[in-house]
Amino acid sequence: MNNDRRQAMPPASIPLRFRCLLLAVAALASTGAAAQADAGYPNRPLRVVVPYPPGGNTDDMTREVMKELSARLGQTIVVDNKPGANSIIGTESVAKSAPDGYTLGVVIGAYAINQSLYKKLPYTPQSLVPVSLMTRTALVLVAAPQMPGAFKDFVALGQKGQPPLSYATSGKGGVNHILGERFAVATGLRGAFDVAYKGSNEARGDLLTGRVQFSFDAIPTMEPHIAKGAVHALAVTSHQRSPQLPNVPTIGELGHPELVTYAWAGLLAPAGTPPAIVDKLSREIAQVMKNPEFQQRLARKGSEGIGGTPAEFGAFLREEVDTAGQIVRRLGLSAD
């Protein structure tokens, strides 16, 4: 009888010291499990989803970073391109993947912009957790070969709006779409409109043939075409002139410092991924970014390695979402 009563004793009647001991043991077990997850991870190949087609700047920068990260982790990292719906398809696949650290996703500015551009998305900001900011890349304003080759003359033509100029983007809400809208407003281009493509390769093709008149694209991807004279480089969007295009003025030099913009790329994981794994990935990426040879390789492509903690990237994302929301509302944009 007494034994039965002891077995049925409610938790509130357990001595306080004993309850504290149980909590301490549970905490130690949890910490030990996290440490084991960190120590044993990864023990098989990882998959990193890029929500854009192969060959663009996001894909190129991801492959550069993942090559170095793979060497540090001692595991193969497969880059899986899942383009479509302005990055939504690929990002959704990551959000709905197992939170075990073996599926990760790359996001760029469109991820932040989409949260204001679309009324409903198949995931929420809480569906994914930040790992690390990876890179940022300056853009260049390029015009089709049939267009004027000087910024002032190009803007003057666009202000006439006869006919209105069109500009290529890699999708609604992408960094070059928003920047194109801001540029048109800032310079008074009459009737300028965007033409959305699935990726920058398709957009670049139509720019080179003159089917669209201008675009903002990553310096690394446009530099070969600029060097051949296939397009006109009118301005770079960085604070300083680009080493790759030293004769091209900055957008600030041309009177529009408010249009200084960089394309960034960062890494997310499905919500619920063990913090120990997220932290390990972040630390390893930070080490990749400290490699001088790697930074020089990125610099030759007009990019810069950043790195940072999950908390820092999370704060960066919140600021980007807030800024993008203000721009989307001010310009009256919607993809619905």
Automatic annotation (TrEMBL):
CDD domains registered for this protein in UniProt: PBP2_Bug27
Keywords, alphabetical: Signal
Residues in the signal sequence: 1-35
Keyword Electron transport recorded: no
Cited InterPro entries: BUG (IPR005064), Bug_dom1 (IPR042100)
SUPFAM superfamilies: Periplasmic binding protein-like II
Annotated family: Belongs to the UPF0065 (bug) family.
Protein name: Tripartite tricarboxylate transporter substrate binding protein
Native species: Hydrogenophaga borbori
